[in-house]
Design brief:
This protein is of the alpha/beta class and 211 residues long. The protein is built from nine helices and six strands. A six-stranded parallel beta sheet has the order 3-2-1-4-5-6. Helix 8 links the parallel strand 4 and strand 5. Helix 1 crosses helix 4. The protein starts with a strand and ends in an 11-residue tail after the last strand. The mean pLDDT is 97. The structure holds 6-O-phosphono-beta-D-glucopyranose and magnesium ion (MG). 6-O-phosphono-beta-D-glucopyranose binds next to helix 1 and helix 3.
């Protein structure tokens, strides 16, 4: 195995914005009187805003029009962006920066591959865009994970073939997407707890001993 590039998921891998997604969805679900908990939330990891809403509405006794659904998704996104507005570069863990810098020093090319349309905002708030050679996100794709589209685009932007890249993910859908695209996969967080991926990482720094 000769890994030349590493493609990181954003929410729940590089930063803890997965928690903000949870809180914003929880607020919407409470307003609508729909049961929603962390177990259901794990199914939303890596999945687009619209698909996430569909999963939440599975527990609703009512059916909603497309217009209502659009309003719900917009409302969740407003709550989410409100939470993001409090992010600063101090919220980006120092050990993650150190890991990324050491990987770059070792000659690895680094990318972000996220389903989120808020990726540019998060990279800007955390002031980490310049750590990456390429970014592919929810604004660039039609199909969110488990479709491999976002990772294939990230690899293309790195100028590398999937077999030369490792995808790092916290979502089951993300590990599936990595596999479907022909990438090596490493799991953290929820995906690691489920025992998914070619490699399981306790923390991002474990990458340093691996490749
Ligand atoms: C993924 C998250 O990174 O982005 C999902 O894991 C989220 O939970 C998806 O639904 C889309 O995010 P956004 O910011 O475009 O609503
Ligand atoms: Mg994630």
């Amino acid at each position: 195995m000769d890994i030349k590039g590493i493609i990181f998921d954003l929410d729940g891998v590089l930063c803890s914005t997965d928690e903000y997604h949870y809180r914003a969805w929880k607020q919407l679900a409470d307003e609508l009187g729909i049961p929603f908990d962390r177990k259901i939330n794990d199914r939303l990891r890596g999945v687009s805003r619209e698909k996430s809403l569909e999963i939440i509405l599975e527990k609703s006794s009512k059916s909603y029009t497309e217009e209502e659904k659009r309003r719900f998704a917009d409302s969740k996104n407003r709550t989410y962006r409100q939470l993001l507005s409090e992010l600063t570069k101090n919220d980006f863990p120092k050990d993650v920066t150190d890991t990324l810098l050491r990987l770059k020093k070792a000659g690895k090319r680094l990318a972000v591959g996220s389903s989120s349309k808020n990726t540019p905002l998060i990279l800007e708030r955390l002031e980490i865009r310049n750590l990456f050679d390429a970014v592919a996100d929810g604004n660039d794709i039609v199909h969110s994970k488990p479709d491999p589209e976002v990772f294939l685009l990230a690899a293309k932007r790195l100028g590398l073939a999937p077999r030369d890249c490792l995808v790092v993910e916290d979502a089951e859908s993300g590990i599936q997407a990595g596999k479907a695209g022909g990438f090596y996969t490493a799991s953290v967080g929820e995906a690691a707890r489920l025992g998914l991926g070619d490699f399981r990482l306790g923390r991002l720094g474990d990458l340093l001993g691996m490749i």
